[in-house]
Design brief:
Blueprint: E1 7-11, E2 18-24, E3 27-34, H1 38-53, E4 62-66, H2 72-88, E5 92-96, H3 98-108, E6 115-120, E7 126-131, E8 141-143, H4 145-149, E9 154-157, H5 162-165, E10 169-171, H6 179-182, E11 190-191
Parallel strand pairs: 1-4, 4-5, 6-9, 9-10
Antiparallel strand pairs: 1-2, 2-3, 5-11, 6-7, 7-8
Helix pairs in contact: 1-2
Length: 216
């Protein structure tokens, strides 16, 4: 099931920056991106994307927001924005997980058989979603490097730094341009009226609200 269109799509899961797009006709009709933090950029990017599409908030029929795993601050800010907008103007609210979307995109690009997709977590760990030969993704989980290297099948990621730690990891193009192509796939989107950030590792669930700091 695909979201009602036009749909405002938000992704604050990256370590730095926010992406917003307007989905209509199964494609992006407008996009906005900022390298600033989610607190500064979410509303500005939404306004920019809507203006580029020639739309107003009143024209929207649904929202879709990334719930992670990823930047907890960015995800919570974008999720709260969507919850606020949906309360003011009742619309469908959908959520998606970036690794599940990545798995769907790489299969769309021709990947076959079992494989895993990964993204960087904390404490030298990695978020992992494994896909079986039938194309069914596992729940997201957090793994040590040794556990990732022991995975069966190819290890795919959009994290360009991954091969420095995981030599077998293969970097693939980012997901965002192809998101509209997989939003209609079973399991990529799910309805969630009150989206919350997904934490794949409950044992590291503490969140202070502190912004990400770059490496000095």
């Amino acid at each position: 099931m695909a979201p009602a269109e036009p749909c405002l799509v938000l992704d604050g899961s990256a370590r730095h920056g926010v992406r917003v797009g307007v989905l209509q006709g199964g494609r992006w009709i407008a996009e906005a991106h900022s390298d600033e933090g989610a607190l500064e950029a979410t509303f500005a990017c939404a306004e920019q994307a809507l203006a580029s599409a020639g739309l107003k908030f009143a024209d929207l029929r649904s929202f879709a927001v990334c719930v992670g795993p990823g930047s907890m601050l960015g995800i919570r800010v974008t999720a709260m924005a969507v919850r606020t907008w949906a309360a003011l103007q009742p619309c469908e609210v959908w959520v998606w997980e970036p690794l599940v979307a990545l798995a769907a995109v790489v299969r769309l690009r021709g990947e076959v058989g079992a494989f895993s997709v990964i993204s960087e977590s904390r404490l030298k760990r990695w978020h992992v979603v494994s896909v079986d030969a039938a194309g069914l993704p596992s729940p997201a989980r957090e793994c040590e490097v040794e556990q990732v290297t022991a995975l069966a099948g190819r290890i795919l990621t959009t994290a360009v730094q991954a091969p420095q730690v995981l030599p077998d990891a293969q970097v693939v193009p980012e997901v965002w341009p192809d998101l509209p192509k997989v939003f209609g796939h079973v399991g990529v989107l799910r309805l969630e009226p009150k989206p919350e950030a997904l934490n794949a590792a409950a044992d590291f669930a503490t969140w202070s609200g502190e912004r990400h700091r770059g490496t000095p």
